[in-house]
Specification:
The chain is α+β, with helices and mostly antiparallel strands. The chain contains three helices and three strands; from the N terminus they run βαααββ. Strand 2 and strand 3 form a beta hairpin.
Amino acid sequence: MGVPALIITISDTGIGMTPEQKARLFTAFTRADGATRAKYGGTGLGLALSGEFCRMMGGEITVERAPGVGSSFTFWLPAVVRADARRESSGDGEAPSG
């Protein structure tokens, strides 16, 4: 990454997700299908907000997933956040370059 950073990875052994679900993961109000939503709940805002907060601080959130195995989310934040740190991001959950 080239700059001092805080990197946090959170993993679970839950239901995982498909490539299609990953593509929509960081979009506000995108939720799981009805059966999954009924069992696990959620509003569909958590990851969209988390991703936006990371980008506002000049960082990023990424995900690795496998259906039926679980998911790992990695938060990358610069150790020092400048007031003008907001970077334009594609919002696709890919790691920052550089």
